[in-house]
Design brief:
Blueprint lengths: L1 H31 L3 E9 L7 H9 L6 E2 L8 H4 L14 E2 L7 E2 L8 H6 L2 H16 L12 E6 L4 H4 L12 H5 L1 H12 L5 E4 L5 H14 L5 E8 L5 H8 L24 E9 H7 L5 E10 L11 H15 L8 E3 L8 H12 L10 E4 L2 H4 L6 H15 L1 E2 L19 E3 L4 E2 L8 E7 L4 E8 L34 E7 L2 H15 L6 H11 L5 E7 L4 H7 L7 E5 L4 E6 L11 H6 L1 H18 L9 H5 L6 H5 L3 H21 L6 E4 L3 H8 L5 H16 L6 E6 L2 H9 L7 E8 L2 E6 L1 H13 L4 E3 L15 H9 L27 H9 L4 H9 L4 E7 L4 H9 L3 E4 L7 H14 L6 H4 L18 E2 L17 E5 L2 E6 L6 E7 L10 E3 L2 E3 L2 H14 L4 E7 L4 E2 L5 E7 L6 E10 L9 E9 L18 E3 L4 H7 L2 E3 L6 E7 L2 E7 L2 H4 L9 H8 L25 E8 ...
Parallel strand pairs: 5-6, 5-7, 10-11, 10-15, 11-13, 20-21, 20-26, 26-27
Antiparallel strand pairs: 1-8, 1-9, 2-3, 4-28, 7-8, 9-16, 12-14, 15-16, 17-18, 18-19, 22-24, 22-25, 23-24, 29-30, 30-31, 31-36, 32-33, 32-40, 33-35, 34-38, 36-37, 37-38, 39-41, 41-42, 42-43, 43-44
Protein name: Modular polyketide synthase
InterPro entries: Ac_transferase_dom_sf, Acyl_transferase_dom, Acyl_Trfase/lysoPLipase, Ketoacyl_synth_AS, Ketoacyl_synth_C, Ketoacyl_synth_N, Malonyl_transacylase_ACP-bd, NorB/c/GfsB-D-like_docking
Pathway: Antibiotic biosynthesis
Length: 1193
Amino acid sequence: MANEDKLREYLKRAIADARDAHLRLSEAEAKAHEPIAIVGMGCRYPGGVASPEDLWQLVSSAGDGITPFPTDRGWDLETLFDPDTDRPGTSHVHEGGFLHDAAEFDAELFGISPREALAMDPQQRLLLETSWEALERAGINPHSLRGSATGVFAGLMYHDYASRLSGVPKDVEGFLANGNAGSVFSGRISYVFGFEGPAVTLDTACSSSLVSLHLACHALRTGECGIALAGGVTVMAAPTTFVEFSRQRGLAADGRCKPFAEAADGTAWAEGAGVLVLERLSEAQRLGHQVLAVISGSAVNQDGASNGLSAPNGPSQQRVIRQALKAARIPASEVDVVEAHGTGTRLGDPIEAQALLATYGQGREGAEPLWLGSVKSNFGHTQAAAGVAGVIKMVMALRAGELPRTLHVGEPSSHVDWDAGSVRLLTEERPWPRADHPRRAGISSFGISGTNAHVILEEPPAASGGDSGDGDGQENGTASGEATTDLSAMPVVPWVLSGRNAQSVRAQTERLAAFLGERDHSPVDVGFSLATTRAVLEHRTVVLGTDGAAPLTGLTDPAGGDAVISGAVTDGRTGWMFTGQGSQRLGMGRGLYDRFPVFARVLDEVCGHLEAELAGGPGFGVPVREVLFAAEGSAEAVLLEGTGYAQSALFAVQVALVELLRSWGMGPDVVLGHSIGEFVAAYVAGVFGLGDAARLVAGRARLMQGLPSGGAMAAVEGTESEVTDILGGVPEGERATVAAVNGPTAVVVSGDEDAVERVMAVARERGRRVSRLRVSHAFHSPLMEPMLAEFAEIAAGVAYRQPVLPAVSTVSGQLVGAADWATPEYWVRQIHEPVRFHRALETTTTEQGVTRLLEIGPDPVLTALAQTAVDSMVASTLRKGRGEPETVLSAVAEMFVRGSQVDWPAMFAGTGARRVDLPTYAFQRQRYWLDAARPVTDARGLGLGVAEHPLLGAAVSVAGSDAVLLTSRLSVRSHPWLADHVVAGSVLVPGTAFVELAVQAGDRVGCDRVEELTLQAPLVLPEDGAVQVQLSIDGAEDGRRALWVYSRPEEAGAEQPWTVHATGVLVAGVPAGGWDLRVWPPVGAEAVVVDGLYERLSGAGLAYGPAFRGLREVWKQGEDLLVEAALPEAVAEDGAGFGLHPALLDTVLHALGLQEPDAGADTAFAAIHVVGCVAVRRGRLRRAGTSVSTRHR
């Protein structure tokens, strides 16, 4: 029997263990196959595609994104194209799919310096921007993932941005390596966003982005990361790939892919970037992220030893498809469409089609065929970004319920046996309705190295993501949780926008206004979405609306009043000031009580504590809240005029305000309070709990109320020493005292009525303003002494703690020490000693570094004092006569735009607001592109002398004579600053450049002065290409030499004549010195307004760019103009090689444009002997003459 029992127990344990093992195995298997949700997408593709919606617009409208070669990358377009496929170094096509703004980047947003941005491969920059957009579109604040296990998987295949350079430009030394290293492409994204999951950059050529997606799915399922960004990027910095494939005859002659078509004649190279935000489906549903589509399976394999390294392998493609279907655990017949690799090559397309026919084309009898298409027909083969382009296209097709047609097909390829299976080309657009199984698509990408990838995409399960309304709070994309606002409607709706600079905020505002002008989104939903899905940056705007149209009105009219609060974050801390007695008013807090449950709950709690302490005291038979909210003119309303209820009500309202602000994530760095307000400050600092604080306040209020009436208080204009002097000079002065010092000349006296009246009279006699205060007692005076002993007993019964944050005492005016707020003696002294608010305010803003002050109280009493005394920004929570919800939200916004922390999402808790799609960040891009310098040949190796000047190349001494020939090559690429000198729409070499050339020519032949220089013809630089320049210096004759300046196009034949642009005469000898410029500006010189000069010159056809806009200040003295000018930093770095940089001298001459039209000067240039000058600090222009004296910077 015992053995049977043992056996029975063993079997029970074994069965339980087996069940447990089976459960664990099932869970592991489910986790290994868990669908992966796509929750966000960002992209850039040819044809102006800047978003998934743009991509869908392009493909659904049969758009074509193919364009001519870019003109801004330094490609030699004159020689690059040649229809002869055998000509070395050329491309037989001149079109492709390009990102023509690939050089544009918002470096400031990502905290990247201009020099580093210039050194960075534009592919890195594109990944940064598309990652930011993808996260925002997923409803994820890009900054919220800092420190999280978020992974980055980036596909990449080009590294030609740096490799095309013949040398490392000095400006980017130290940045170029990291800016172009493949590992940094993913690593930089993790660094900038603060991700701590895996960061992997991979190159499997054209399958890179789909392989990245596959690896990201695996990392999510194994728990290596909770969120993953996956995608790829391609930018061709050099035309090398076009040249290579032209030799292989692999490119379509018209630059367009014709997938699976009889007319297919090769691929078409293109660029792009795409990023997907991925989560496990269960996690996306828990967080309430909108699920755009689901990846149910994926696979990667290799061609292996096929019939050629770059030749496709049909059986391997079949295997990768079957592996993906197995991973998705579905039959091939339940996939509706395949977004093919489909590059349009005669070899690859038929192999791919046969693989699809052998897999997806089977077992579909009586059902729809597999539909086949390729986005490459719209904008070409985007290579490392191709797979993700197909994914985005199919996600958008799922959402639209439509399959777009594939372009350029015409007749299907005769090299494919289309009867071998049920596969049809999408030669026309088709609806994609829901069927008896989830709609699914396969996406293929095959790399030239043989790495193949296939992904199974399917529509999201019903009610996935934020649209479901399930889940908990903001984790479900809805504003649930404890209600801090009226559930029926928010009294004030804040729309929060921010940017890295003021321009980005304005652009964001304009973009949002235009977007919402075409949609009917709830203002609360918009506010919630802005608050929960966008990063908070330094420049900020808060638009407040009290009805449906108001926020949108504020967007379209930013100057429309108090509803729009804008500012920039300032350094420094946040201080909270708490108002004292005298600011109380009937109904204070009523507007907040009615609309904000947190405020109402706390106010009721505080009033309960106060009433318990006041109970039984004479004159305190009415509840505090009834007095606070009493009708005007009622008996209860009169009670608020007495100090007992006034102090209690002020304390209650301020504490409720504190807790309301805390519920919105706000808090002070430093606190201080005026009189009764100091008790609230101590409560906020954690010195005592709410019950003890109420006990102190109620005891103080009750005892003061019980003092005999009488006494007076008055505000006196004057310093403390002046008022003290008045007090000491009148017989009644001993019965009055200084009660408060609120400002440098704002003092309050308190005491016996006749003594106060006498002080007022003397102050008036001295021309000082005085004002009698309406008070029931003479506070902070010796008249308070009868209550001190009893109050000391109350104070002794309270539990104190040291402050948990810095606090400033208004008794001492200094930082609260250990013997201050945490002792009963302090609170006794606080009753009868002066309030030194001004000194406390100075301590707060100087020693404590507070630059933002918020007054918490019913009226801006302290705000007015602070605004006249310190430079800090000041706001107040409430103001008489204004709606309280609007006023408190305005104050919150004022503090926020200057740098205070605000938990805006918490403000929407309990409203039921839902996340809606909004425009992504308005990038403020600038151009960053390293121009590949033309390879320089050492002039010495050609038997020539080196000119060693930025405008000159070689120097040749003509044999048999003392003549000299100088040569040069000028272009807007070799000398970018020349592109800033545009006249009548053409880039002209400025006349000052001929001056510099003439001076340099003279230096080389011993001539110190340019006696004469005549410009014969303008020298126009082409947009592309260059001009050859020669300076011919004749032999010396009587110490004089003739100078000739010639040019002709670089590609000119030997027989093409040269154009004479300038002639001159060089002589030896320096003329006598010019003007005395030691006193600057000279006595009697009048300043001339420079503003608007360049706008006027532009209107006259003189379009000067930054290099020529260095005019700083101009003065006029008689007929002379006195000038200060400087080169911009980017140009000044190269200034050392010049005598006087032509852009700088030209800029000096711009001052002539400030004269009246008939006052122009015929300018003859004196000899200029300076080296490396980048700023003219003292220049004088005179009719028929010029003198330039410089000081080096």
